[in-house]
Amino acid sequence: MKTFLTLELKKTRLWPCIFGGLAVVAAALALGGMFLAIGHTSGRSDPRLSSLVFVLQMAMIILLVGFSLVAAALCNLVFIEPYTGRNLALTLSCPVSRGRILLVKLVFVGLFTALSYLVGAVITLAVMLLVDRLVGSLGTGWPGSLLGQVLPMLVTSLAGLVGLVGIALSLGFWKRSMPIMFGVLFLLDAVVGNLLSLSPLLSALVLMIIFLASLPAWWLLHRTLMKIELP
Questions:
Q1: What is the Cα 121 distance to its own chain's centre?
Q2: What is the average pLDDT across 6-32?
């Protein structure tokens, strides 16, 4: 497994995805900082804007939407291009079972996406919490209580990220089209982003539903890849 992951790492152009992830973190810090500034100035009249949990939730929505696009771009490099382009014959002629190849690709995409998202989220949340403390915190209670609210958001957001990418990738691969994959993802991100801004509890419920709905989509992708034949 380690050897195959190393080979996948060497042949995949990760720099665009890395720069994309950095851009997402910068956007989350900028927009999250804007919400934070509103909360510390004119947001006192709005209970939601004056809540640190809500401000952090907005930043995590930006991270979720942004990293879903980064993960989709990586899936295009790892799945759609090799299985629909000129490298199809080379991909299918590897002296390894297709199931093993698919597992390696899924682990590779999953590890990169999860690590980049978690690192980006930790950096964004740490910077925003530090700034909030320096200018007078919007949060109430012990820091441990805030951590107890943020950790479930991280876990459910990561599950939702898997779900969003799985649904979009399966439809895009089924139609052999990268534009369809990104079109579906943009649509899902728009709907999910609006729903997630309502409440943390609703956010967790929506993200878990998306994750569960993506399981048949991942199964469909696996079945499709297993049945591909050389032209």
A1: 11
A2: 85
> So what's the pLDDT on residue 132?
77
Residue keyed to tokens 């879903």:
68
DSSP-derived secondary structure letter, 46: S
Q: Is 16:73 a contact under the CB 8 Å cutoff? A: yes
Distance CA 174, CA 120 (A): 31
pLDDT at 47 over 80: no
> Please, what is the angle between helix 15-40 and helix 98-135, to 10°?
30
Give 42's DSSP letter.
G
Tokens linked to 204 = 């967790």
189 contacts 134 by C-beta, under 8 angstroms: no
> Sign of dihedral through CA atoms 16, 21, 26, 30?
positive
Contact 156, 208 (CB under 8 A): yes
Contact 49, 34 (CB under 8 A): no
Using the predicted structure, report yes or no on whether residue 172 has a pLDDT greater than 60: yes
CB 75 within 8 A of CB 218: no
- CA 33-205-168 angle, to 5 degrees, is 80
Q: Which residues of 38-48 are buried (b: 16+ CB within 10 A; e: fewer)?
A: ebbeebeeeeb
How far is residue 41's CA from residue 53's CA, in Å, rounded to a whole number?
A: 17
pLDDT tens, residue by residue, 118-149: 999 889 888 888 887 777 666 554 455 666 77
